[in-house]
Specification:
This protein is an alpha/beta fold. It is 36% helix and 23% strand. It has a domain of 162 residues: TIM Barrel, CATH 3.20.20. A hairpin with a 2-residue loop joins strand 11 and strand 12. The radius of gyration is 20 Å and the shape is elongated.
């Protein structure tokens, strides 16, 4: 779609019509992920044309301009490919930074070691929320246009040894579901039903729990509160979560809201 002017125009026009017909405040782009330099260049062109079309529609209709946002990789550097920073800064109202899915038990990720799916800090590598936010700011996107994302879900691993149950413990792939994913609500039920031990790691800012050979990495209230406080301290625009339907009795949502307002 983004590679040709005609298909970009079709996408842009139809998205604006969709937003207006449903009385949306704006539109959010989720492209996971451009994989070549030309695709990142096309993304920049798409964003610039989208912004111009939104401004034109607002002027002709008399309505307030639609908001334009996008969900992007946790870092401005996607495996040595750079996001189009100027287009992002000029054309988007904000960026939803997907600072999660760093570790999972899937074959393409880390099936042989447990890990913090949404680490804010990572003493073992550059894969963390803080590293990503720092990269976006250093690349030139204002902090006030960045929104820190966190997951209302986690991942379950099958431990190789039930007695070795820390972060980065040996594992044998997925547990509980076909891809290991599990919602926060299901995690809290698992803890209650299995008498699982729950641990908050303040160095990495992550939570995990374990019972028998099942190990789950996730974000609980302490991690969420710490991340929101971090976002405020960095001067970010805000935070978002994927997704509120996975929360349990709005525990994480309320924690985040209270931390932001503190």
């Amino acid at each position: 779609m983004a590679s040709q002017a005609s298909t970009r125009k079709s996408f842009i026009d139809s998205s604006i019509n969709l937003a207006r017909s449903n009385n949306f405040y704006g539109l959010d782009l989720d492209w996971e992920y451009p994989s070549m330099a030309t695709e990142f260049a096309n993304l920049g062109t798409l964003l610039n044309e989208w912004r111009a079309a939104v401004a034109s529609e607002s002027e002709s209709s008399g309505n307030a301009p639609l908001l334009l946002t996008a969900a992007f990789f946790y870092s401005s550097d996607y495996y040595s490919l750079d996001y189009p920073i100027q287009a992002i800064s000029n054309s988007l109202d904000w960026v939803n930074v997907m600072a999660y899915d760093f570790y999972s038990p899937n074959s393409y990720s880390s099936p042989n070691l447990t890990g913090p799916p949404a680490a804010l800090y990572n003493p073992t590598s550059q894969v963390s929320g803080d590293t990503g936010i720092t990269a976006w700011i250093q690349a030139g996107v204002p902090a006030t246009k960045l929104v820190l994302g966190f997951p209302f879900y986690g991942y379950a691993w099958l431990l190789a040894n039930a007695d070795n149950h820390g972060i980065f413990a040996p594992a044998n792939g997925v547990a509980i579901s076909s891809d290991g994913s599990i919602t926060y609500s299901q995690i809290k039920d698992f803890i209650a039903q299995n008498g699982a031990t729950a641990v908050f790691n303040s160095t990495i800012v992550t939570d995990y729990c374990y019972a028998g050979t099942t190990w789950i990495g996730y974000d609980d209230t302490q991690s969420i509160s710490t991340k929101v406080t971090y976002a405020k301290g960095k001067g970010l625009l805000g935070y978002f979560a994927w997704h509120v339907g996975a929360d349990k009795a709005f525990a994480l949502s309320q924690t985040a809201s209270q931390a932001w307002g503190a």
